[in-house]
Amino acid sequence: MAAVPRPVPATISSFVAMDMMREANALAAAGRSIIHLETGQPSTGAPSLVRKAATHAIAHETLGYTEALGLPALRARIAAHYGERHGLEIDPSRVIATTGSSAGLMLAFLSLTAPGGRIGMARPSYPCYRNIATALGMDPVEIACRAEDGFQPTVAALEGLNRPLDLLLVASPANPTGVVLPRARLAEIAAWCRTFQVPLVADEIYHGLTYTGSATTALEVDDSAIVLNGFSKYYSMTGWRLGWMIVPESKIRQVECLAQNLYIAPPSVSQHAALAAFDAKDELEQNLARYAENRMVLLKGLARLGLEVPASPDGAFYTYARLPADWPDSVTIAHRWLQETGVAVTPGIDFDTIDGGRYVRFGYAGSTADIVEAVARLQQWRLNA
């Protein structure tokens, strides 16, 4: 029988931030003093109320599978959150608990398009957007975004695309830049999507982490948008792997079937514990105040180092800085800093494979003392370079 060509398995690029974390952890295990600015992870754990709720759930709940869409009480509490924060009335049936916002991203892609589908996204942006799309056989369409536009899409950029999109993904506040989309710009993008019947997906995982005003949810300008959020960032629960989606009524059953088959259900103990997260505002706002202080320390330190921050990081806990023209590329710099100073950062090529060689992302979700020390080490490195 003649040989039949076999399908080629999906291959995707690594998540460079995680590669840098692995390298940094290896140095730390060998006794080096390492300051972690490479990942988007709060240095504080889950709020005390969440931990108490988890302990109670372990003692008193079976913690078996929940419904694929999540605990009804949690879905109702998330819906109420949109009333409290945004003044929106969201039917709890539209809320879907997910295994982290990453699962929500996959569910959104799979419910809106198919292999070959064209998914529009900013460049630079979170690398898992394009990598997940590629793994699903979809076509990530990176929209080159200018620094003067906050590295965020504009209607002009969308109109300049040479082929139609099957969905558009926006993020605000954005990773790696920390830029928040102004309400007016988000409304313009949503209107463009409606005109050309392009579904809009909004990653809002960094909502709650803003420094110059609140972020607008896409649901305020387009109730048909799919919104992704979760407990990892503002709620300081990265390892609990719990996110959520808000979907139009027409998509609930489709997403439910996908979730049933792909994930069964989100982690049960995390769902029970997360009910308490919305009551932990005092503790969470203390975290936010620390991030705000860290942000100012880092921005001032980067200016003294000669690194430019071309777009204002008004949200999240990242700064996307441009290297001086006479410096080596971002990969070389990131590895040199790690080896020579013990400061771990992420090279910009993780977020932009074309222009990211001139940028570095700094995460500042750690302690203020760590940020101060990291800046001091980099300044000493610059003096010795």
Descriptive account of the structure:
The chain is built from twelve helices and twelve strands. With 385 residues, the protein is α/β, with parallel strands linked by helices. The protein has two domains: 16-40 and 281-384, Alpha-Beta Complex (Aspartate Aminotransferase, domain 1); 50-278, Type I PLP-dependent aspartate aminotransferase-like (Major domain) (Aspartate Aminotransferase, domain 2). The strands form three sheets. A seven-stranded mixed beta sheet has the order 2-8-7-6-5-3-4, with helices on both faces. A three-stranded antiparallel beta sheet has the order 9-12-11. Strands 1-10 form a two-stranded parallel ribbon. The longest helix has 25 residues, at 281-305.
Question: What distinguishing features does this structure have?
Answer:
single chain; 385 residues; Aspartate Aminotransferase, domain 1; Aspartate Aminotransferase, domain 2; 2 domains; 7-stranded mixed sheet; globular
Q: Under the CATH scheme, which class of the largest domain?
A: Alpha Beta
CATH architecture of the largest domain: 3-Layer(aba) Sandwich
The CATH homologous superfamily of the largest domain? Type I PLP-dependent aspartate aminotransferase-like (Major domain)
Annotated CATH topology of the largest domain: Aspartate Aminotransferase, domain 2
User: Into which percent range does the helicity of residues fall?
Assistant: 40-55%
Total helices: the number is 12
Q: What is the topology, as strand order, of the major beta sheet?
A: 2-8-7-6-5-3-4
Q: Low-confidence runs (pLDDT<50, min 5 residues)? A: none
